[in-house]
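HUMAN: Quick job: go over this next protein and say how the chain folds.
***
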Amino acid sequence: MSMLTIRQKGTLLKQFFRAKFSHTSTPLALRWNITSRCHNSCLYCNNHKLNRHPDLELKEIEKITQKILKLKIARLSISGGEPLLSPHFDYIVRFCKNHRISPIINSSGQYFAENLNTLKLLDLIQFSIDGDHELMNTVRGGKAALYLQQAIELAQKEKIKFSFCATLSKHNTNLKTIDYLLDLATHYKTVVAFQPIKRVYLKEAEFAEHAPRAIEMQKVVTHLLEKKRSPHSSAAIRNTELGLQHLLAWPHYGDLPCMAGKLFFVIQADGTCVACDRTDYNQNLHAINFIESDLESVLQKMRTPLCEGCGFCGNLELAHLFHFKYQVLHTLRKIA
């Protein structure tokens, strides 16, 4: 299973330098929430309680893909909701492969077997995980742990590349769970990304109830930094050392400029687009109709949001790359 080709990496580097000296959005990648539906009931996420937008029609999906093609992005991150619930998942992945765009998805692992043929075409699956089986079922409800385990085993059997991503909440921000996740990633010869829970618009109550104490977050991040600096344990940690240092300031991060709206933006399940969908204010007030608006207008109107910052790996790495805070080629390998 290949990741970014040499040609795609060249395109990515060219786009990066264009963005560096441009005053308009020049995305290297997009995240597309292709459905708002999800069958999990995660304690720190209230998507299952919110009004869901019906899935777009195929003709609307086709309009979006044609505009994506014109952007000449290197990577499309397919998310949701649970993207495997979308009736257009196969169409979108095959569009990417046919046009040399690297497709990856964020998934809970449910409905994995039903979508196996399409999943084999992906460059990476990022499995969302909280901890051991008991914790998974407590945080997500139902048979979340079973579905994930079955998906991992099938991915391994079919040689589909995968990694893990853990949202740090009060339920797993402890050394025992962190080490469990690192051992799990090591066992499967992959990596795990750690991303702290964030205060998000319409999810303020969930943040207040399920966020850890700042001292607990600092203890865990310090532990990860020690592991990252050790040649015997660093391989399992997806976060960069610089990224982990940034997390020490959670929940009020430093002044690292955000790349949302500049190097990437988000297409939402209703066909609108925003710089980021994880802000602490109503970003939908600035949403642009991606389906009907001309592409030039979309890029000119896209603006980086103002918020307290975040700890999401992709955004941090793009920001560090953009400001030359560590070796560019090393960063590109991490992104690729």
About this structure: Strands lie at 29-33, 75-79, 102-107, 124-129, 162-168, 192-196, 264-267, 272-274, 288-289.
